[in-house]
Design goal:
Helices cover 82% and strands 0% of the residues. By secondary structure, it is mainly α. The longest helix has 31 residues.
């Protein structure tokens, strides 16, 4: 149980560590912000495909691949609905909607952070479930892989929030909450392993769908609207490659 608790703190804490690193990149020109957002899009694409969607397909039989498809569509539809209500969530950011001049950007950032938070839950479930078996070494490998990938994910949510006008303290608190979701997921996966096993393929696909929605509907159009689309595209490829290498290194 102590090992599970330490793992939960580790996978959640990695997001916080990444967030602290992210504070080093503040007040950057729009050109470089688009590059960072492009890198973030690549990280999210890789996390969605390699860390969520492919594992979900491996958990189901060929006849059950419809569960993955349903999860993907459900995640996209869910975030589309969330897109409609994000203007009513500005109080979470601590930004005064009356005086804020970039509410549209704030909506995008809140949606982006929401997708990161949603995807942390099934990752936590997977980490907790791994400790429900007898292979502790494999469980630690799974947890280490999730923690390593959480560092760049924590980094990439900071700059967009700061540029959207969210104060540093509130930005860190929001980032902390995304990591806390993973801690909760780890304990849920450990204590409710049978239930988690049943819902994990759908949950992974659902989270993958939310991330694909954000990348395709928000991040790519945003990074291609200021004249720096070439840099943003290459940055996205680099972000995808970085996550791919991390996945290979921990295998």
């Amino acid at each position: 149980m102590k090992l599970v608790a330490l793992t939960a703190l580790g996978v959640g804490g990695a997001t916080v560590i990444g967030a602290l690193i992210g504070f080093l990149f503040q007040k950057i020109p729009h050109k470089w912000n688009d590059a960072i957002m492009g890198f973030a899009a690549g990280v999210m694409l890789a996390a969605a495909v390699i860390g969520l969607i492919l594992p979900a397909t491996e958990m189901v039989e060929t006849s059950g691949v419809w569960i993955v498809g349903l999860g993907l569509l459900s995640g996209a539809v869910f975030l589309n609905l969330m897109d409609k209500i994000t203007p009513h969530l500005h109080h979470i950011s601590g930004v005064d909607e009356e005086i804020h001049q970039n509410n549209r950007n704030l909506n995008k950032v809140l949606l982006f952070v929401m997708a990161i938070g949603i995807h942390n839950l099934p990752e936590g479930l997977a980490a907790g479930m791994a400790f429900g078996g007898d292979d502790v070494k494999n469980a630690l490998t799974v947890a280490l892989g999730i923690a390593i990938q959480n560092i760049p994910e924590g980094m990439i949510i900071i700059s967009p929030m700061l540029m959207a006008g969210i104060r540093k303290r509130r930005t860190f608190l929001i980032a902390f909450c995304t990591g806390l979701i993973e801690v909760i997921g780890t304990f849920l996966g450990y204590f409710a392993i049978n239930l988690a096993q049943a819902i994990l393929p759908f949950a992974l696909a659902f989270a993958g769908g939310t991330m694909l929605y954000v990348v395709g509907d928000e991040m790519i159009p945003e990074t291609h609207s200021h004249g720096y689309e070439r840099m943003a595209t290459y940055s996205m490829i680099i972000g995808f490659f970085v996550m791919l290498m991390m996945d290979r290194l921990i295998d």
